[in-house]
Amino acid sequence: MKIILLSGGSGKRLWPLSNDARSKQLLKVLCAPGGEKESMIQRIVRQIRETGLTDEIVVAIGAKQRDAIELQLGDEITIVAEPSSRHTFPAIALACSYLAEQGTQADEPIIVVPSDTFTDNSYFQSIREMADAVTRRVADLVLMGIEPTYPSTRYGYILPAEHSGSDPVAVKNFIEKPSAEVAERLIAAGALWNGGVFAFRLGYLMDILQRMMPGADYRTLRANYEAMPKSSFDYAVVEKSESIAAVVYRGRWKDIGTWNSLTEELSERVHGNVKSEACDDTYIINELEIPLVCLGGKNMVVAASPDGILVTERGLSENLKHLVDGLGKRPMYETRRWGEYKVIDSVEYPDGYCALTKRLTLQPGKNISYQRHNCRTEVWTFLSGQGEIVLNGRRSPVNRGDVFTIPKGMLHGLRAITPLTFIEVQSGTNLVEEDIERFDFEW
Amino acid sequence: MKIILLSGGSGKRLWPLSNDARSKQLLKVLCAPGGEKESMIQRIVRQIRETGLTDEIVVAIGAKQRDAIELQLGDEITIVAEPSSRHTFPAIALACSYLAEQGTQADEPIIVVPSDTFTDNSYFQSIREMADAVTRRVADLVLMGIEPTYPSTRYGYILPAEHSGSDPVAVKNFIEKPSAEVAERLIAAGALWNGGVFAFRLGYLMDILQRMMPGADYRTLRANYEAMPKSSFDYAVVEKSESIAAVVYRGRWKDIGTWNSLTEELSERVHGNVKSEACDDTYIINELEIPLVCLGGKNMVVAASPDGILVTERGLSENLKHLVDGLGKRPMYETRRWGEYKVIDSVEYPDGYCALTKRLTLQPGKNISYQRHNCRTEVWTFLSGQGEIVLNGRRSPVNRGDVFTIPKGMLHGLRAITPLTFIEVQSGTNLVEEDIERFDFEW
Fold it and tell me: Which of A359, B41, B68, B163 fits B25 for a cystine, CB–CB 3.0-4.6 Å?
């Protein structure tokens, strides 16, 4: 059995903590058994290992998440990053073609698991049953049907075929996000929530991919990724399949998609530099250094990050997405393979000239790539740590108090020996991450 | 008649918009007649002028407020700044001795007016009556008694003498912040709120000062200001006076001391980069550049500034002070005579080394003083505007993109020709405003 852990999405619903580079499943706000904090994806990887399901996990992710995922999951997990964002079917197809290229047999059961669900360990027992059902060829496609706890209007429903008493059950049809009234009738008729977990033989998916893009293997799919239609796995595979079964899961299950659902699982009510009094069932998370004071408030969520500040009633947090769509053109905080940065100031002048000031920290032994920019100048003021800087091929040590001006076109690289913190003032006419040319360098 | 406008206090109750350098009376959040925004102190000065009361206003302020007050009130107002903070009696005595030095006669009525009350113009008619009462020698000290609108426990009460039917009324005694029950009985007995407005002849106060510090004039009082006891005008003068009358004011009166009272007078419900939905009777002020999103919430105040973030129920905002006492060692935003700055980042390392990053803007024609620091290095990166820099006596033009490193001990000054914006990274072992030596320089 191989597991493809899906990690994508912009996570607008958990703004301002989540952004394009830090999806909700990467927020370290859950409580791990040892008392430490862990993210949703770390929790699921830990659970997969604890239940002995498999060590062969491939994480299928959006391109912008690579650094953050690597930092959280370490080197033992294989990451297959989308070259660009094209929805779940292309991402799963890319991960499958990677597995095929690595020698996985066509009969091997593949399980696609979302990374933003909160479950107990019995969930992974159901996943094992799904893999067994695939091996036994019960159906081409085996889903997980979650026993509903209330007539939700936010989920898709799986309606089992009548007289389908066995587990796995045969699937009659799907109903997407019904009204509460319809949901009640569906539940009475034995319908299940669609948990977004899919199991199939590798060969089944590779055949679908071959029909769509003849001759496609991992390399050609990567190279022609833009040619793939932007379609969901549900649309491209599930809805077209004629042989579907579902394993029923009756344990704890929750998709942590909104502030309301996340807060129920938070390790603490208050995170960061917060003072509060007379707050009733209110959760406060402050990632900024300035203090956040909360006096009163009932059933609220207050969250502050370099991307923005949110004050919401918990029950209304589902409506957040449309309010934050279009806010913030760029992430103001990112963890990267070399460390992290946050934007501390940003100005744009009417003539198009911009300035962006960041505080960056490089972890020991890590480096940023040897690079140059065509449209911006950078000024680095070092606050702490030791490292080595390379400017147009010349190496120098860097220490606290050093200042370097890096004009447009100058090749520069930086490596940390101890944790290295500096302030960077970028200025120029086009301050985008894409204004970067990377070069090889032997540190 | 001369008016001493009292402007002091740290304004913790309107945190995070107010700080030691920006008291609540300096917040430009009220609506001026032309639709522009004005601060409480600007409103009172405008009202004094509109009602033709006097043009001779002396503003008695704390030392840290000078630049901000000058920017708001312009050159036509005389400012007497306390050398250090010593409560209301020393501040009023200093302003009186300044008036005496300027040739004001001992018989001249002086009116002390607080700068954080919100009133209509008839208030100034009552002030005129107070001055008349002083001139007619009705009493040594004439107060303003506000007709109470509810049994407040937050104000002091003035109890008129029995059978004192005339206006001004004779004062029998004072009751400080009574219980609600006592307040009700006081109101039934005809008591008035003490509005903190005091009228007296200049000579009356100068005599008290002479008894306290024989021979004191403006210069010696300034020079020996630290020797003055920290006492309130109420304690040092009002409680000891044997001849007190009160003019009754029946118009609109409010002290804008809490978020709850301020919000009722705000020009708009939302200020700054805010998106809101389903908010009920909620006020949102965002002085940060990052977006603030508010979804739901009833009777709340949400305020964000470089000093911090506040989320409070309006009815609880009176309890704010003790929560924010001790927060933030330094103001993160200040307006100064030369322009303004905000702190965008601040780090302190375990070994005592600190870094503070600011964005500053100098107004055209203004300069920061020619100065040097003993404990910190500054790195300036210019983002916009033209100006002139002086480093150890050498002048150079400055333009967008220029970078200057100013090590400890280097003399430096800066003057703006057009609005001049730059990022300053300060670093060193003692980042306090006091680490500054100023030198004369002929621009």
Answer: B41
Q: With an 8 Å Cβ cutoff, are A293 and B327 in contact?
A: yes
Chain A and chain B share a number of CB contacts under 8 A equal to 194
β A30-31/A37-38 pair status: antiparallel
Q: What sign for the dihedral angle of Cα B330, B334, B339, B344?
A: positive
C-alpha to C-alpha distance for A157 and A160, rounded to whole angstroms? 10
Amino acid sitting at position B43: R
CA distance A263 to chain B (A): 16
**Residue A345 and residue B344: Cβ atoms within 8 Å?**
yes
Three-class SS state of A296: coil
Mean pLDDT of A363-383: 96
**Bond before A151 cis per omega within 30 degrees:** no
Asked if residues A308 and A328 have their Cβ atoms less than 8 Å apart, the reply is: yes
Q: Please, are residues A106 and A207 in contact by the beta-carbon 8 Å criterion? A: no
Q: Which residues of chain B neighbour A15 with C-beta distances below 8 Å?
A: 293
Tokens of B418: 């057009």
The residue that leads in pLDDT, A380 or B431, is A380
Give the model confidence (pLDDT) of A90-149 as tens digits. Answer: 999 999 999 999 999 999 999 999 998 999 999 999 999 999 999 999 999 999 999 999
Task: Indicate the burial class of A349 (C-beta count within 10 angstroms; 0-12, 13-18, 19 or more).
Answer: middle
**Residue B12 pLDDT class (50, 70, 90 cuts):** confident
The whole-number pLDDT of residue A10 equals: 64
Q: What pTM does this model have?
A: 0.83
Residues of B in contact with A400 (CB under 8 A): 353, 427
Q: What does the DSSP assignment read for A347-393?
A: EE-TTS-EEEEEEEEEPTT-EEEEEE-SSEEEEEEEEE--EEEEETT
Q: Give B59's strand partners.
A: B5, B79
Phi, then psi, of B227 in degrees rounded to 5 = -80, -15
Tens-digit pLDDT profile for residues B105-123 = 999 999 999 998 999 999 9
CB-nearest partner of B300 from A278, A297, A423 = A297
- Residue B36 CB partners (closer than 8 Å, separation 6+): none
Number of neighbours of residue B332 by Cβ within 10 angstroms: 20
- pLDDT over 70 (residue A5): yes
The one-letter code for the residue type at B298 is K
| Alpha carbon distances (Å) from B289 to A20, A441, B362 | 19, 38, 19
d(CA B98, CA B95): 5
Contacts of A24 (CB under 8 A, 6+ apart): A9, A11, A13, A14, A17, A18, A40, A116, A256, A257, A262
What is the per-residue pLDDT for A11? Answer: 67
- Pairing, β A300-305 against β A283-286: parallel
The answer to whether the CB of A378 falls within 8 A of the CB of B402 is no
- CA proximity to B293, closest of A265, A235, A313: A313
Contact B427 A312 (CB under 8 A): no
Residues of B in contact with A312 (CB under 8 A): 293-297
Distance CA B347, CA A114 (A): 38
A-chain residue closest to B407, CA distance: A401
Tell me the chain B residues in contact with residue A271 when contact means C-beta distances shorter than 8 Å.
Answer: none
> What is the DSSP secondary structure assignment for residue A105, as one 8-state letter?
-
The model's confidence at residue B19, banded by pLDDT at 50, 70 and 90, is confident
Nearest CA among B396, B377, B375, B376 for reference residue B386: B396
Binary contact (B309, A290; C-beta < 8 A): yes
Which residue in the set A293, A345, A401 is minimally distant from B310, CB to CB? A293
Kindly indicate the confidence band of residue A43, based on its pLDDT and cuts at 50, 70 and 90: very high
